[in-house]
């Protein structure tokens, strides 16, 4: 039992600081000034999650944690939505992203004000997950019809989207049923959410390496032609 608890604590710790990885890579890479809105969203998202985890560690106030959870859910959705809005080409679908983003934001704010939940804002999280998964599947569908000669797994966008997909799909039922089970049962399954969080940031970091390589190659080509 003690060994199992130690492993759980290890995954909690790694998941809590895994958001540091994209931030450190962003500071380390020389071409960060040329990053587009997709990467800026990922960097901001990593900083927001790191700050959220820090707040949970330094406070025991349920009211503070409640506001923090609600704020993070809205921020997470909006930052992921920015990524897909930038990556998807179909204008009608992009308009749909804007429409549902406004609707979701208003709903999540009203939910946090008027609904007194015990553990997590499970309903907004569920809606967020469904919307982002729809954007994810449409992005992959659009990529399947692309005439680009670059293999999809050689694109930085693929690894960002897959990271989001694994994280949201893997954690979906854990978050949905979090309020319906006791703390001990929730703790047993929360390790999977931590694992998916770690995978998410590993994939985000891999995307940053691919993007850095692309930018370095473009700079080299420009230098050769000058």
The secondary structure category is mainly alpha
What is the distance, rounded to the nearest whole angstrom, between the alpha carbons of the first and last residues? 65 Å
Radius of gyration: 19 Å
**Named CATH architecture:** Up-down Bundle
Rounded mean pLDDT score: 86
| Number of helices, counting only DSSP H or I runs of 4 residues or more | 8
Q: Would you state the CATH class? A: Mainly Alpha
Report the sheet with the most strands, covering strand number, pairing sense and barrel closure.
none
Spans with pLDDT under 50 lasting ≥5 residues? Answer: none
Can you tell me the number of structural domains? 1
Helix percentage range: over 70%
Tell me the β content.
under 5%
Q: What would you say this structure looks like, in words?
A:
It is built from eight helices and no strands. It is globular and about 55 Å long. It has 226 residues and is mainly α. It has a single domain, classed as Up-down Bundle (Rhopdopsin 7-helix transmembrane proteins). The protein starts with a helix and ends with a helix. Helix content is 81%, strand content 0%.
């Amino acid at each position: 039992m003690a060994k199992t608890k130690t492993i759980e604590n290890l995954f909690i710790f790694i998941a809590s600081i895994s958001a540091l990885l994209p931030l450190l890579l962003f500071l380390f890479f020389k071409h960060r000034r040329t990053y587009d809105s997709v990467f800026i969203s990922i960097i901001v998202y990593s900083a927001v999650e790191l700050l959220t985890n820090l707040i949970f560690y330094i406070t025991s106030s349920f009211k503070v944690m409640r506001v923090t959870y609600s704020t993070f859910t809205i921020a997470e959705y909006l930052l992921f939505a920015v990524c897909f809005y930038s990556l998807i080409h179909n204008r009608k679908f992009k308009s749909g992203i804007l429409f549902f983003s406004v609707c979701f934001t208003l709903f999540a704010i009203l939910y946090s004000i008027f609904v007194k939940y015990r553990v997590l804002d499970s309903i907004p999280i569920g809606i967020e997950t469904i919307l982002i998964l729809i954007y994810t599947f449409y992005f992959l569908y659009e990529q399947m019809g692309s005439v680009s000669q670059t293999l999809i797994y050689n694109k930085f966008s693929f690894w960002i989207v897959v990271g989001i997909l694994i994280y949201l799909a893997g954690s979906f039922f854990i978050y949905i049923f979090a309020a319906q089970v006791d703390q001990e049962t929730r703790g047993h399954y929360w390790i999977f959410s931590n694992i998916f969080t770690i995978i998410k940031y590993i994939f985000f970091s891999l995307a940053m390496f691919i993007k850095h390589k692309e930018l370095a190659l473009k700079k080299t080509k420009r230098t050769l032609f000058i």
